[in-house]
Amino acid sequence: MKPQKSRRRSETVNRIMGVQDWARVIILSMLWGGSFFFVGIAVKEVPPLTIVFFRVVLASIILLTIVYLKGGKMPTLPALWGGFLVMGALNNLIPFSLIVWGQTHIESGLASILNGTTPIFSIVLAHFLTKEERLTTRRMSGVLIAWLGVVVLIGINSLRGSGIQLFSQIAILGAALSYACAAIYGRRFKSLSPLVVATGMLTGSAIMMTPMALFVDQPWNLSPDIGTIMALLGLAAISTSLAYIIYFKVLATAGPTNLLLVTFLIPLSAILLGAIFLGERLGWNAFVGMGLISIGLIAIDGRLLKRFKLKKEVWYYEI
Fold first, then answer.
1. How many CB atoms lie within 10 A of CB 125?
2. Cα–Cα distance between 113 and 120 in angstroms, integer?
3. Do 217 and 43 contact (CB within 8 A), yes or no?
4. Number of domains present in the structure of the chain
5. Interacting residues of 128 by C-beta distance below 8 A, sequence separation 6+
6. For residue 79, how far is the Cα from the chain centroid?
7. In sequence order, what are the residues at sequence separation of 6 or more whose Cβ sits closer than 8 angstroms to the Cβ of residue 87?
8. What is the pLDDT, as a whole number, of residue 161?
9. What confidence category does residue 7 fall into, taking pLDDT thresholds of 50, 70 and 90?
10. Three-state SS for 118?
11. Is residue 27 part of a domain?
């Protein structure tokens, strides 16, 4: 009986993600990793608030068009749109602004690594704010290992350099914290179409960002070159609109837990794009920190550890 039970459990693990799901996760990581690359280009000529403004406005227009082309409708309840505004602030306005500002002083690859701490904040916040997801010994160990990676990232070179670099890295961590808050707050939209939620969220973000960008940055005085304009279009169309569509497809077919795998892959694409096209070079502490954060996330996720344990059980029963 035990060998059969072990095989059934092993088959369940193997059905977690198919080839198409893996392909979507890899593509999604490249799209979100590309956002740091696009920002790295645009931030040289365009102020942070204006970058966020163009990103959310263009992305909301694209998603609104998709909703209506598919025959859908946006809700009209004021209370629901109030929720979209809160979600837009937590998931777009605050983190996008912090990331773009942070990237004015640090490399896109380093920003992507620090942004990869989002699941760490999610695990800790979920323990205190929800009843479903509690901290276990394994998850707590993963959190501690991952935070050791953050210390390696921030505590070596930044403390020796200018203070603005340290604050820039803290800003990226603040963005990760905001994303984690959005993930918990977003649970109230489970009964709505994910595409509608994403569209409402981005539309709310656009409404909030418009006066801020127009009055603070006065974008009509800017004269960006064609490369910067293409980066803004890529940021909105590819790394936001298309990324959200793939995101919700993965959510529907593979489940929310598998989306954590994207976190492991985003820094790789961001570092590669930054090195090839922006000439960025990261120090040894960035790669050591990324390694520790990845180990911590693997421990938090737990699936690879369970898979290894199941393989040991199958090997034991076969002998």
1. 16
2. 13
3. no
4. 1
5. none
6. 27
7. 182, 185, 186, 189, 197, 200, 201, 204
8. 53
9. very low
10. helix
11. yes
Q: What is the DSSP letter of 242?
A: I
Q: What is the DSSP letter of 162?
A: -
Structure-block tokens of residue 33:
């990793």
Per the document, the length of the chain is 319
| Separation of alpha carbons 297 and 266, rounded Å | 13
What backbone phi and psi angles, to 5 degrees, belong to 75?
-65, 160
Q: Report the percent of the chain where pLDDT is more than 90.
A: 37
287, part of any domain: no
Domain assignment of residue 52, given as a range: 18-137+154-281
Contact 64, 241 (CB under 8 A): no
| Token pair listed for 11 | 């088959």
190's tokens: 């489970």
- CA torsion 222→39→90→132, rounded to 10°? 170
CB atoms within 10 A of CB 133: 14
Instruction: Say whether 273 sits in a helix, a strand or coil.
Output: helix
Q: Does any domain span residue 165?
A: yes
3 state DSSP class of 74? coil
Which residue has better confidence, 254 or 245? Answer: 245
Q: Which residue has the tokens 């060998």?
A: 3
End-to-end CA gap in the chain? 15
What one-character DSSP code corresponds to residue 158? T
56 is a domain residue = yes
For residue 149 the two structure tokens come to: 């990676």
- Using CA atoms of 164, 169, 170, 171 in order, give the dihedral in degrees to the nearest 10: 90
Asked whether the predicted pLDDT for residue 311 surpasses 60, the reply is: no
The answer on pLDDT for 297 being more than 80 is: no
Task: Tokens 């492991």: give the residue.
Answer: 264
Q: pLDDT (tens digit, 9 = 90+) per residue, 187-241? A: 888 788 888 989 999 999 999 999 999 988 888 888 899 999 999 999 999 999 9
